[in-house]
Write a structure and sequence with these properties.
The protein is mostly helical. It is built from four helices and two strands; from the N terminus they run αααββα. It has two domains: about 50 residues, no CATH class; about 55 residues, no CATH class.
């Protein structure tokens, strides 16, 4: 029994970070789709601005190779990004004024905010409401 108590005490004393996502790193280098799109647009503008390029066989091969690339970029940006990403939602205010804000650090050392609603009577029970980043507590409050 004492082994269990010592193990429990060690867990309590050890500080851990909250289970939050790491902060998205900011990169200033262009991504591969961005570079390829820029090249594709320069190529298309060059063909429009200089009609003599259409006579050059190497230019036609380059244009022919860039058509599948342009199709891939269309699929990536129009379909993948519209299906697998969520739009940013405007924050909704909380309706219950008893919610208290507290700060905590996530796994990526990112300062985050959460809300706590204490019970009117002493209790050992806890209700935890988890939601994703584009969601908010106010949207789940009515549920």
């Amino acid at each position: 029994m004492s082994v269990i108590n010592r193990r429990r005490d060690r867990l309590i004393l050890r500080a851990r970070r909250a289970a939050a996502y790491a902060k998205t790193p900011v990169t200033w280098t262009p991504s591969i789709p961005t570079v390829l799109t820029a090249l594709f647009l320069v190529e298309a503008l060059a063909v429009i601005a200089f009609p003599q390029i259409r006579v050059n066989r190497a230019a036609l091969i380059l244009i022919g190779l860039s058509i599948p690339l342009g199709f891939w970029l269309f699929i990536y940006w129009k379909i993948y990004l519209s299906v697998f990403t969520t739009p940013y939602r405007e924050p909704v205010p909380l309706t219950d004024s008893r919610w208290k804000i507290f700060d905590f650090l996530g796994w990526g050392e990112e300062r985050m905010q959460a809300f706590i609603l204490l019970a009117d009577e002493p209790s050992k029970d806890l209700v935890l409401y988890l939601h994703g980043y584009p969601s908010s507590l106010a949207r789940g409050e009515s549920r």
